[in-house]
């Protein structure tokens, strides 16, 4: 990974049972209300009552496009299954709409697919290389893979709305200041 500029990368470290998707949706909505130009993805889960797996959909924050990333394996399935094809399709969509005007990326999580080298991993790399701030979420058992991937470039945040928003807003202020400096005739 070639890094240019200041790295602004944070991971919300959470435990199983915490509603991280709802939390990240709230963060994205509040940043959007602050007129931050967002990119990235949040996850929406639907269904999943009575022990069944929820249908998982990724929502592109820029276009509001939705792509299902889960497979329905039927009532006899022993677990939920991530649809790697849906995740790859979403990654391609995200890659096509990667816009240099984006000020902040929310990438729903660094999970199993990313730990194994796939998923939205390329989106993380592209954002880091472009100097665009990123917030994501990670939980055990993926914290070790996250540490190896980000190699000390990230800070850990607790799932505290005030702390996460403060970090995000500060990262956007720093990016805006850097972009103004780069555009100034003396910069």
Which structural traits does this protein have?
single chain; 187 residues; Rossmann fold; two-stranded antiparallel ribbon; 39% helix
Would you kindly provide a written description of the structure presented here, covering whatever features stand out?
By secondary structure, the protein is of the alpha/beta class. It has helices spanning 20-33, 84-96, 112-115, 121-130, 143-150, 161-183; strands spanning 9-13, 38-47, 54-60, 66-68, 70-71, 81-82, 104-107, 134-138, 154-157. Helix 1 (20-33) crosses helix 6 (161-183). The protein is globular. The chain starts with 8 loop residues before the first strand and ends with a helix.
């Amino acid at each position: 990974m070639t890094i240019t500029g200041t790295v602004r990368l944070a991971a919300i470290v959470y435990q199983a049972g915490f509603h991280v998707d709802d939390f990240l949706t709230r963060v994205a909505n509040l940043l959007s209300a602050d007129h931050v130009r967002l990119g990235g993805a949040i996850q929406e889960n639907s269904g999943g009552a009575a022990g069944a797996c929820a249908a998982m959909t990724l929502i592109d924050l820029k276009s509001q496009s939705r792509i299902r990333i889960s497979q329905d394996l039927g009532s006899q399935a022993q677990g939920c299954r991530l649809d790697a094809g849906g995740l790859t399709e979403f990654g391609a969509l995200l890659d096509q709409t990667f816009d240099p005007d984006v000020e902040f990326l929310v990438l729903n999580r660094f999970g199993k697919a990313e730990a194994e080298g796939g998923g939205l991993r390329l989106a993380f790399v592209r954002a880091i290389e472009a100097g665009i701030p990123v917030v994501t979420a990670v939980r055990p058992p993926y914290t070790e893979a996250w540490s190896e991937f980000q190699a000390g470039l990230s800070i850990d945040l607790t799932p505290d709305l005030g702390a996460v928003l403060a970090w995000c807003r500060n990262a956007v202020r720093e990016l805006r200041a850097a972009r103004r400096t780069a555009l100034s005739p003396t910069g």
